[in-house]
Amino acid sequence: MTDSAISTRLIIRQPDDWHVHLRDGEMLEAVAEYTARQFARAIVMPNLAPPVTTVDAANSYRDRIKAATGTNFTPLMTCYLTDNIDPAEVVLGFGKGVFTACKLYPANATTNSSHGVTNIQNIYPVLEAMQRIGMPLLVHGEVTDVDIDIFDREAVFIERILSKVIADFPDLKVVFEHITTAEAVEFVDGSGTNIAATITPHHLAFNRNAIFQGGIRPHYYCLPVAKREKHRLALRQAATSGSEKYFLGTDSAPHLSDDKESSCGCAGLFNAPYALESYTQTFEEESALDKLEAFASENGPRFYGLALNDTRVVLEKLDNQAAKEFQTDSGPVIPFLADETLSWKFAGFEH
Question: N or C terminus of the chain with fewer C-beta within 10 Å?
Fold first, then answer.
């Protein structure tokens, strides 16, 4: 709701982040607070080194996250699927409430994905078990074949892999994460209620031209890579449509500035500090502020079968200068929207 017709103050149910990279060690300590300050819960990605593939590893990682964020934030842990993952471990973790979902990374698709799945058939026993117990599959939807253009890898993944998985496991709950194409929107819209998708703030904000504007701009490089303008517009329409199939997932993925700007720079944008403000700005630009609460705070919990948050957050219509960088003990991290002025500011919780 808003306090006036000119929407200078927006109050919504506290949102959750259904896709985030919190890293580990020193980086976890440096970045976790930016997620925890605005989101009640988050689906935490398991692509550590080594990856989170067991119940014990997930419990240990969850404890480290809680130590970094405090008691008001709930990390929801995921299991990293490998070619030889044990279905019994997945079922055990889900039954104990440790694993909320499993994450499919095609091998070498993105950061720390070298242990990922090389052939989807290798994990069919796990997918069968997940379908049976109602455990969601979270998908990084790109093929990694060297002969496929990087801008086509999501569309080819839909055709070659995802459509067949859903045909073989029609009741499997699937979240097509960080979608970037009109083809993905069309696929999700045309699928059953067990298929949903997350959309990042940065894929709503810029297209692939931003990566090359005035030179190579590594802080706009992420995977899946941003696509053409027609795809960005399709994502904005989907996010602001009111469809229950789409919900908030930042894919915030921090890297040290030196690692982003190296001769082989890392993929990922650190958007956690201004994620909610960026989404709000997009929804305002699309004249859809009335749809923001459902996208940010309701569609995700309902898909996962979780209760909605009771607390509410406040966003104010104010100029909000984003920081140029955030310091860690190992060097700076450059955030998404660095040094830009946003039109909304997260103002904390309603009292």
Answer: C
What is the reported pLDDT for 4?
Answer: 43
What is the predicted pLDDT for the residue at 344? Answer: 98
Parallel, antiparallel or unpaired: strands 312-316 and 345-349: antiparallel
Catalytic residues: 251
User: What distance in Å separates the CA atoms of residue 296 and residue 210, rounded to the nearest whole number?
Assistant: 25
Entry field: residues in the chain: 351
List CB contacts of 119: < 8 A, sequence separation 6 or more: 83
Sign of torsion over alpha carbons 127, 96, 297, 244:
positive
Q: Given this model, what pLDDT does residue 110 score? A: 80
**Nearest CA to 184 among 173, 175, 193?**
175
Residue 191: count of CB within 10 angstroms of its CB: 18
Residue 7 pLDDT: 67
Query: pTM value?
Result: 0.96
In the DSSP assignment, the letter for residue 117 is: B
Cα(199)–Cα(166) distance, rounded to whole angstroms?
20
What residues of the chain score a pLDDT lower than 50? 2-6
Matching residue, tokens 């996208």: 295
